[in-house]
Structure formats: C-alpha cells, structure tokens
Amino acid sequence: MTLDCRLLLVGAGKMGGALLAGWLAEGLAPARVIVRDPAPPPETAALLAAHGLRASGVAGAGETPDVIVLAVKPQIMDDVLPAIAPLVGARTLVISIAAGRTVESLAAHLGPDCAIVRAMPNTPAAIGRGMTVAFANEAVSDDGRCLAARLLGAVGKVAWVADESLLDPVTAVSGSGPAYVFYLTECLARAGVAAGLEAALAKRLARETVAGAGALLAQSTEDAATLRQNVTSPGGTTAAALEILMGSGGLEELLEKAVAAATARSRELAK
C-alpha cells in the first residue's frame, strides 16, 4: 500500500492497534502516522516502539491530517471530538469505527460538510481476517471511498452499504458474530463432556473442529449449505444431530432471535 497521506489514529486499543499493524505491514510509512492515545495497551505500545512511533495524549496544534481514524469507545466519543474538530481540514477524510455512533452525531461535532465514513469491523481483524462493512456520507468523494477501502482492507475484507441503517444488522451479524461462534465452541465442548469425553479432549476437539471448518469455508468456492450437505450422509450420525439443530426451535430460530436482539440494541445505542 503506497499512501502519500498524513494519518491521525485516535485510539490505539485492540481494534485501533490491529488497523495500525495492518497499515504498517502493508507499507504505510511510520513517519506519516500520528497516534493519539494516552495509554495504549502493551501490545500496541510494543508495535509503536518497533516502528519508532509513540502515542501522545494530544493530537498537536495546527496539524491537518489527510485522514483521521476514530477508534475510541462510543461512550467517550463526545469527549474526544471537540479536540479533533479543529484538525479537520476541507479535504480531511474521517473514518469512524465506533459502534452505534451515526454519521449525523459525528457531523454535529465535525461540521455538516465533513467527509465521513462509518465502518463496522470485527475482531478477526487482529489476525488480518476481519470483515468490515462501511457507509460513506455524500461528502465522501470516489477517491475518499477508495482510500477508506484500502485502509480498512488492510485487516480483511470490506463491503459497502448505501443505507446507514443497515449497519445495525451488520453489527448484529458480523460485528457480534465472532462471539456467537466462540459460544458455539463452548457449547460443543460441554456437549462432548456430557457425552462422556474428558474436558480437555472435548475442548480441543471443539476448538479445532470450529477452526478447521471455518478455514475450509474460507477456502472453498461452495456455500455453507453445500458444505453441510457434503458431510451429511442420509441416516447417518450427522443427519441425526442436524435433525435436532434444524428442527422447530432449533439453531436457525435461535440465531434469528439473537440477531434481532442485537440489531435492536444497536439502534438503541445510536439514539
């Protein structure tokens, strides 16, 4: 990634640090990056030190970055934005990854003409396997969208939506989705113990099975339904299990309720 721009990263926690690691790994020059975080976690501090960077508690007066990435917690955004607003220039692109914070709420601090991209990444970004969905307001140019896609794409895949309200179900599916998979792994391990396996073996089997299935899904050109059918012999053990999971009140119905609950909560947080 060859970027001739000055970038300010506000918030260098887990997600901000993952983004920074991705940019640096893709060739973004450390000299072009400013990091604002009063207390970055140890892993991010180590990353900064390795590249000769340091995190400051202030952004620096008079600096006008080409890109500002807001990676702070949503609940402190209103405290952070007043100090950031004076740094936004006429051509500055602002990218926010704060869940639930609408473009309108950001523009209230940054100005109605500010070019803003609101994005929802997920935790696999930490290993470069993230899924990010983004929305751009009308002030974002085509070049701005391309730049945002390149920055967000440094930690995984990127998709765009034209309707900002769709970021609520996006949050429920991909933003919260890793937690569902981790919980599935927990439940699978406990089910193994209930069936007679030792706890250590059950945990290992569940973990490796979920990780392996995910890797297979990622590499395969077939969809999930086809892969499921490929390992389900009629009248076999998998079919017996799926009869329970796919029956009334089964996994699909539970996930629909879970995603609906997460979507509703995302909309509540945006108010």
Write a structural description.
By secondary structure, this protein is of the alpha/beta class. It has eleven helices and eight strands. Helix 2 links the parallel strand 2 and strand 3 (55-56). The radius of gyration is 21 Å and the shape is elongated. The mean pLDDT is 93.
Largest sheet: 8 strands, mixed
Helix content range = 40-55%
Average pLDDT metric: 93
Number of helices: 11
Care to count the β-strands?
A: 8
Which spans have pLDDT < 50 for at least 5 consecutive residues?
A: none
Radius of gyration: 21 Å
What gap, in angstroms, lies between the N and C termini? 37 Å
Query: Order of strands in the sheet with the most strands?
Result: 3-2-1-4-5-6-7-8
Strand residues, percent: 5-15%
The succession of helices and strands, N to C, reads EHEHEEHEHEEHEHHHHHH
Structural class: alpha/beta
Which geometry do the CA atoms define? elongated
Task: List its salient traits.
8 strands, 271 residues, 48% helix, alpha/beta
How do you describe this structure in short?
This protein is α/β, with parallel strands linked by helices and 271 residues long.
What's the helix and strand layout?
Layout: E1 7-10, H1 14-25, E2 33-36, H2 42-50, E3 55-56, E4 67-70, H3 77-84, E5 93-96, H4 103-110, E6 115-120, E7 130-136, H5 142-152, E8 156-160, H6 167-175, H7 177-194, H8 199-219, H9 224-230, H10 237-245, H11 251-269
Parallel strand pairs: 1-2, 1-4, 2-3, 4-5, 5-6, 7-8
Antiparallel strand pairs: 6-7
